[in-house]
Wrn protein (Symbiodinium pilosum), 443 residues
Amino acid sequence: MDVPAVQPSSNVAFHKGERVLLDRASAGRPKQLEDLKRKFQSALESTKCLVGLDMEWKPDRCKENSNHVALIQLAFGGSVWLVRTCEIDLPHFVRQLLKDSSVVKVVAGLDSSDRNKMQSSFGIEVPKNPEEAGFVDISLLARECGFVGSGVKKLCERYGLPIEKNKKVSCSNWAAARLTEDQLQYACDDAFFTLLLGGRLLQEEKVSPSMLRTRARAACDLVLPVAGLSMRTKDMSERRAEVNAFLQELNEAISRACEAEGVAKFPVAKLGQLRDKIGVAFGDRASLLLVPLGARFLKEQCQLFGISKQDHVWARSAAETAPFTDEEKSLEWASAPEKSLQTWLSLQQPRMAKQELLGRLGLLARAFEGVEESAKAFAVRKQACELSASATDSPDPPQRGQAARSAAGLRPSGNTKIVECRPRPLRKKSDPQTVVARGIPKQ
């Protein structure tokens, strides 16, 4: 399948400036803390009261388990301060910065869960309109500009600053006794690139003006040209090739497993148990590559995998993911959607299963989103829904047996039985159970 599974750029941008760590060791004595305070105030003055802000905490696994903020990242131009609030009380000079509305704090996606975290962790209340307290949210700026994707990674790609956002590191234990180098780099990158993106977005014509944003833009114009000198790039082509090879082999293993079990989809929770052609478990390989085998990560690899609402995965076929032709893309999807769908169906291979057709339509809609043809993307998705609601396919189930199970890399078992992938009952809207991880916006 000639489809890139991850971001094609081989160069990745990262922060390589000064890193200051405030933890039990560095801020444990009054004299040390006083020296750090003077250095902190000097850094704030040098950036004209402009700072990039992010927070991390141990992932909340359920609603009842709400962990406090474990790390605060503050980017002062090219230097990033990391405050380990899981080890020390929030220093009073950091608290003052967070509460001071005259300090411009550039953030990414400061939603209600983030505000609740600040309240429960530090007793700091952020108003419903965070700009009243000096917070400039780049996600809000991006939406005002009509950009597709308002997260840090997507926005960095838009401005030619490809960064690495490893989900396994993102959802790691930020309250661990010792942070890894990967965690430290991730934390610095989040605050640093949030600050850089703030400068880029504030220059966009569609951004609504305000006194705070005008002040923020003036500070960005002065500070960020120098801050940009703390950015470096590294060649990630070798790692990208390893991850792409891993995902391609996983795609093939899922196909073999579905054939062996006689089902169309495979549970995401069991992917780690699958084995490659030489008998190595994909869970072990994923750990070595720092690749999460969760539904969220697999959704990002949409060119190779499809994910159901019940967290079951299927492998996309070569026909489903083949490059789109000019004829497919030039159809009048927005003005004549039904006619375009019929013409599009006639262009596809005659033996494509319905699931493949639906998947290909979904990928086509994503392709239009990538070039911001939102009207076309909406029309394609609507036609995919109508096609899905029509008569379903009923293909003959694949052959079952121990030979098929062995080919799929599944361990033999004395009491093996074929398991159907039955959908779980939908949860009622009134069910209050949710999982909030790292303050990721619900949308």
